[in-house]
Structure formats: C-alpha cells, structure tokens
C-alpha cells in the first residue's frame, strides 16, 4: 500500500504532544521519530487517524525521498536506509498542535 500523500500523527511518549507528518514520496517511514516539541521519542499512530480529520491540519514534518545531490556524502546508515526504500524527514516552520490532549502515547 502506498502512503504517498497521506498524513500521520506522531505522539510523544515524553511530553504527550503530537505532530502531523505527511509522506510526499513512496517509501518507508520510521515507527519512532524525534518529538518536535521536546526532542523526546514520538511514536507513529500508523496512519490510523482519518485523513478527513487531518485535512485542515498542516504537516509539521514531511517524509521524502532525497535526491542524489542531497546525499552527496550521507552517513552510511542513511544511505543504506534510503537504498532499502526508506524516506528521510524535513520539518516545516509550522506551529505544533498545542491543543491536542496530553495523553501519553499507548496509555489505556
Ligand atoms: Zn515531546
């Protein structure tokens, strides 16, 4: 299944805040990434949020396939990741979503 164009939510296990990401290319995205608010560990909601719900929320992070020139001298692990279909991310200068509940990711 392609997730190209789809938005996802990453919820922080440390501060409880979340951010919206968007896949701009086909490829693999990580289960965990760095929280944009506190630099803690943010966990993917695995695209389970309805896209209609996220339509009006701008993505604060994009997952994209880098062009070769962008990886002129990438760390070996980054090149290996991209070679296997992995995407890398860039953040956008957009506000986080501070009004979201501060529930811990994975809390019951
Ligand atoms: Zn956080």
What key attributes describe this structure?
108 residues; alpha+beta; 2 helices; 11% helix; disordered C terminus; binds zinc ion
SSE layout and pairings?
Layout: E1 7-12, E2 18-23, E3 32-34, E4 41-44, H1 51-54, E5 61-64, H2 76-83, E6 88-91
Parallel strand pairs: 2-5
Antiparallel strand pairs: 1-2, 1-4, 3-4, 5-6
Bound molecules: zinc ion.
Question: Explain this structure to me?
Answer:
This protein is an alpha+beta fold. Helix content is about 10%, strand content about 25%. It has helices at about 50-55, 75-85, and strands spanning about 5-10, 20-25, 30-35, 40-45, 60-65, 90. The relative contact order is 0.27. Residues about 105-108 have low confidence and may be disordered. Zinc ion binds near residues 17, 38 and 40.
What's a concise summary of this model?
With 108 residues, the chain is an alpha+beta fold.
Question: What is the helical fraction, as a range of percent?
Answer: 10-25%
Q: Distance between the terminal alpha carbons, to the nearest Å? A: 29 Å
Helix count equals: 2
What is the chain-wise order of helices and strands? EEEEHEHE
Mean pLDDT: 85
Overall 3D form: globular
**Main sheet?**
6 strands, mixed
Give me the count of strands: 6
- Class by SSE composition: alpha+beta
> What is the radius of gyration?
14 Å
Low-confidence stretches: 103-108
In spatial order, strands of the major sheet run 3-4-1-2-5-6
Q: Number of folding domains? A: 1
Distinct small molecules bound, one entry per kind? zinc ion
Beta-strand content estimate: 25-35%
């Amino acid at each position: 299944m392609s997730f190209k164009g789809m938005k996802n939510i990453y919820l922080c296990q440390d501060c409880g805040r979340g951010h919206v990401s968007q896949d701009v290319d086909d490829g693999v995205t990580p289960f965990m990434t760095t929280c944009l608010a506190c630099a803690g560990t943010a966990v993917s909601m695995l695209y389970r949020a309805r896209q209609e719900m996220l339509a009006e929320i701008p993505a604060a992070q994009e997952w994209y396939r880098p062009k070769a020139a962008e990886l002129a001298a990438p760390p070996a692990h980054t090149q290996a990741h991209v070679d296997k279909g992995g995407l890398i991310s860039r953040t956008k200068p957009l506000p986080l979503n501070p009004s979201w509940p501060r529930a811990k990711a994975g809390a019951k």
